Amino acid sequence: MAEPGNVAVVHVEARVAEGEDAGETFETTDVDVALESGSYDPHRDYTPMEFRVGAGEVPPAIDDAVRDLSVGEERTVTADPEDAFGPRDEGAVVEVDWDDLGDGDGPDAAVGKPVTAETGEVGWITDANGDVVTVDFNHEFAGQPVTFVVRLLDEREPSAGDD
């Protein structure tokens, strides 16, 4: 069982929990799962996720799942929005002038494209109407239940580099 304060090394697969696309993988850290599920993106680096158990670095459902696992075990959990990617926050949807999109975003900006805020947050352009662009900084699955498949690959005490 992964202990609070220790570093957990996991592979995680996130799937749509409800609706027409239920069971579809939309994110994973495991290249084999990405290839099998058809969600593979050649621009991603598929590596295990490392986090300190109990530190709030990952969605609560993932943190809770590793506490019940031994190294080599896997668990599937379906999480409410609060334990997955959080509730949808309408305050995270902003309108900006097209000219204010920032370095590198302006020329390539279009509906569906990512935009990086000065704070480093990534949002998605959801509407472009004249000189005004709507950007949504919510996670794509905020406000929705998500099914996580969590496989504990390793657990260790933190080292100086983990701070």
UniProtKB/TrEMBL annotation:
Cell compartments where the protein resides: Cytoplasm
Domain PPIase FKBP-type: from-to ranges: 5-94
Listed InterPro entries: PPIase_dom_sf (IPR046357), PPIase_FKBP_dom (IPR001179), SlpA/SlyD-like_ins_sf (IPR048261)
EC number: 5.2.1.8
SUPFAM superfamilies: FKBP-like
Catalysed reactions listed for this entry: [protein]-peptidylproline (omega=180) = [protein]-peptidylproline (omega=0)
Transmembrane segments annotated in the record for this chain: none
Keyword presence, Iron: no
GO MF entries: peptidyl-prolyl cis-trans isomerase activity
GO cellular component: cytoplasm
Keywords associated with the record: Chaperone, Cytoplasm, Isomerase, Rotamase
GO-annotated biological processes: protein refolding
Keyword Cytoplasm set for record: yes
Pfam families: FKBP_C
Annotated family: Belongs to the FKBP-type PPIase family.
Name recorded for this polypeptide: Peptidyl-prolyl cis-trans isomerase
Species name: Halorarum salinum
